[in-house]
# Entry
Amino acid sequence: HMQINKVCCFGAGYVGGPTMAVMASKCPKQTFVVYDINELQINKWNNKQYPVYEKNLDEYINQTLDNNLIFTCDIDIALKDCDIAFLAVNTPSKKYGLGAESSLDISYIDSCLQEIKKYPLTKKLILVEKSTVPIKTCDYINAVLKDKNICVLSNPEFLAEGTAIQDLLNPDRVIIGGTIEYAQQLASLYQQWVPKEKIIFTNIYSAELSKIVANSFLAQRVSSINSISIICDKIGADVNEISQCVGSDSRIGNKFLKTSVGFGGSCLKKDLLCLIYLCESLQLDEVAQYWRQVYLLNEFQKQRFYNLIITSMFNSLRNKIIVILGVTFKANTNDTRESASLMIIQKLQEEQAILRIYDPQGKIDKLEQYQSLDGIFQGASAIVILTEWEEFTKIDYAQAYNQMAKPSYCFDGRNLLQGDIMKSLGFLYYGLGRI
Ligand code: NAI
# Structure
């Protein structure tokens, strides 16, 4: 059995940073080097201005930074005598050419492979796909690095933004796909804090596919409940009650059954589209259409929400002040990638509304935002809630109402507030799938 002493990770983003910080704290005998080509990103980690907001992340960085955790832009520091290298770089939807807007772009993975190809490895390197990759990327890696002394494993990451540290400390499962001899070496790291029975060994394609499937199932649950919210709006049933009634069935479970303005984030949509693309490339049209509908319903839900805003306000938003609460794709993260807010803000701008935007952590590029809620409601015609930040439940809405123009609207894209209370304050309140 080879002794693992040194681990490196390509990519110091939402996954690479928190994952290596937790691993370093749980595996004090190993050294962890996080490598990124973006110097700004590396400087932020080293200067404790974390590019990622996650609860308790600072605690794990403080414990380990400059101890057994290093952030660097120097490939030599990363790969010298390295035993295991994680690939945790971004794999966005491909923006060009064949499979544009649906297949995953592995060009960042590719650039990592080129670095490794150039580097004079002195011992066997276990190369781990931590990024979510298209099926059979492992074959591609093996082909590119066929002259190098490497072995590829697939070890997809299942952390959720907003609860990343908790998820890393106590994962539901750890999946390791690939040659068992090397898979066990990687498992020896996880076994330092993850119970043995939670580590699942699979073949490498199953591991790759399991991540795409897990995210597609999550997306499917969101679209399923959102489709029901649309029915509820027509018949006067309450989708929150439906979620409770249906979710109490232990075969179904109550998680991921909350209606919203639609799923966002960097993963669900792109991974779902990746599955659709896989089906299409395998000429499985019925299967592709089944999953495509999950995606289309999400787009429809977003569209439905801004239509609700615009039509309720009599198609006349020009020069009206609208307060946007929340730009992140969910609470407790600073990530705004693929957030429903992006599309809704754009639509409201097209209607020439005056937007006042606030989020406790998130910042959209090139968009002016309020730093606090101070004065934000003065003279506003509407409040639009797009993220379920707890802070938004604690607003004094009676006071807000007094400061707002009349009529005062509230469009709650997360069903975060109690509709009857908002209505009794005088608001014209609209949730999703509720009377
Ligand atoms: P990110 O965009 O936050 O971070 C990726 C980092 O990789 C960036 O800092 C970028 O500069 C760096 N990078 C790009 N090319 C590089 C190269 N050649 N060498 C070194 N560094 C390079 O991405 P994020 O969100 O951390 O996602 C990474 C992967 O993990 C993706 O495949 C994603 O699908 C997957 N994933 C993401 C989750 C999430 O919640 N964000 C959860 C589970 C998986």
